[in-house]
Amino acid sequence: MAWREVGKKSICANLTKALASTKSRDVLDPLSTPILEDALKSISSSIKHVPVFSVSQSSLGADNYQILPNRPLTRRFHASPGLLARRRSDEPFGLKTPKKEKYVKRESKMQPPVEAPYVPPKPKRTTKSLPDRTIDIFEGMTIGELAKHANESISTLQEILVNVGEKFDSEFDTLSIDIAELVAMETGVNVRRLHSNEGAEILRRPAVVTVMGHVDHGKTSLLDALRQTSVAAREAGGITQHLGAFVVSMPSGASITFLDTPGHAAFSAMRARGAAVTDVVVLVVAADDGVMPQTLEAMSHAKAANVPIVVAINKCDKPAADPERVKVQLASEGLLLEEMGGDVQVVEVSAVNKTGLDNLEEALLLQADLMDLKARIDGPAQAYVVEARLDRGRGPLATAIVKAGTLVCGQHVVVGAEWGRIRAIRDMVGNLTDQAKPAMPVEIEGLRGLPMAGDDIIVVESEERARMLSAGRKKKYEKDRLRRIDEGRTEAPEPSEDVPERVEMPIIVKADVQGTVQAVTDALKSLNSPQVFVNVVHVGVGPISQSDFDLAQACGACIVGFNVKNLPTSLSLAASRASIKVKIHRVIYHLLEDIGNLIVDKAPGTFETQVAGEAQVLNIFELKGRSKSKGDDVKIAGCRVMDGRVTKSSTMRLLRSGEVMFEGSCVSLKREKQDVDTVGKGNECGLVIGDWDDFQIGDVIQCLEQVNRKPKFISSESGAVRIEC
User: Fold this and answer.
1) What is the pLDDT of residues 627-681, one digit of tens each?
2) Beta-carbon contacts of residue 207 (< 8 Å; ≥ 6 apart)
3) Residues sharing a CB contact under 8 Å with residue 469, sequence separation 6 or more, in sequence order
4) How far is residue 704's CA from residue 646's CA, in Å, rounded to a whole number?
5) Is the pTM of this model over 0.85?
């Protein structure tokens, strides 16, 4: 090492000076030797790892001096625990010198980036770990309470509040119910608003009664008898296909809000919405027809909504009416009637003769008194959309029933994912009104978009708050829609080779109101089969437009219109030129039947092998001595066709004592020495089967054909439809 060489040079220089001073003397002073040794020891001790030098006295002379280095002392010992502990204790106290780490050269910015595969970041939560949870929110909720309900950290909610633009000081700050909903939706949970009635004026309100039952059991006729109108006569096909709401003033002076629901199987969602907003369900059952599928469905809707039921047995004036049989059927389905010790009232009525209506009114008012129906009158309103439609002159219209509070014209509202400022409020007769009280059905206009039937109406403070809440709900709905699509893709089974590929049938649905759009869409989706997939690519409210034709031409879709205006001449010509199928109907029966037949025609079908005819071998003929050009000897089976027909182009199956002996193609088929293609029942023929000549009298030859079997469109008495493959 360099430092060791430097140390040696300095030592040699000092020794040279010392020896020079001693050479000048004739006799060596005896005292100089210890001095010289001390000097050498001090010099050697100042430099580490340099061996100690000593001067041998025996070699000292006047002119000769030898400097001998001492060999370093080598110690050999066994490492005992005590010795190791003593050696560790000899280490100095204090901070230890940090070890030198390996030097890593920093990469310069001018070097090209290293090509590495992209590793996506791990998601915080998978889609399956996000169930559809619903939390309760209320006015004055603190940030800490919201974090506890949403199962999120306070810091996460504070970040969302900063993005929303809300100021906060601590986790104990209160939030408005609109901001709480916005923050909760950002975390991916659904919300349910809770409103407090503290300090509010609570008064009695009219009862909301929903009339439900099977199709053609007289629901609308019964309501016509109550309000002295003729709505049923104006319905297309004589059946109700919309959800109607109106107020009926009873002879006693009381008023009741009625909801008329359709009875067809396709309108199940409408009946569910009616049961969700009602106080009492009137279950109408025809005395001559009894309990039917939609009757049972109405009972299940009422039980799911925890709503009391009043049974009205209609058509008691008919000769075939049997009310007692209806009561027994209802009791067997779990409905506890008053006559049998239960609490469900039963009234026998006739809508045609207008008998029993007073008893029905009395039963409804008694049920309302038992429930003690009250609602908050002042404060912001809460309403429920039962139907929505698009008017050409007035824009989006929503039919709603106020549940609490007072809905005032000019307020900013949020309806589902849409918002707007109420421009006008009309009652169900069409008269303008300034406000709507609880249990009052009204039609509001002024919305920016068409809401969905079943959405809640909430009143907000300002337009800015309405815009913000509407945008947040749209974002949440879109996330949920994409998540459902993703889950459907992951859960879809892999197509197997045995299952034939499904044919897609795209459909565009246009209807007059939002409720019928949903009903028609659900009914069309129920026509899905293993062979045809009904894909509803677009739905809308209003007449069929040019944009619908453009979309249909782009994706090859069929346009279905329900209760919409007929096409103008220009669009009809454009549809015929572009070969676009347009189906417009006003009755749900005819619509589903027409689309069902269209699906059956589009289905590829399944090929099956069936026996087209049978022939019995009566005799065997053998042709011998044929030339080489005509081939070997041939055996001909003389047969008689016993059933069906025998075709030359079909496959032949030979049966002997019920056992299949051979299957092959027919080489030759003759009747009366003439080649023919088909031989009918009762005729005799001769046939030759390729690669088979072991015929025996009594054998049965079957003629097999491949038949393409199409699916069937089946419609039940209740109106339910399906495609059976």
Assistant:
1) 445 556 788 889 999 998 999 888 899 998 888 888 888 888 888 888 898 998 8
2) 256, 257, 279, 280, 364, 365, 367, 368, 371, 373, 439
3) 178, 181, 182, 414, 419, 460
4) 9
5) no
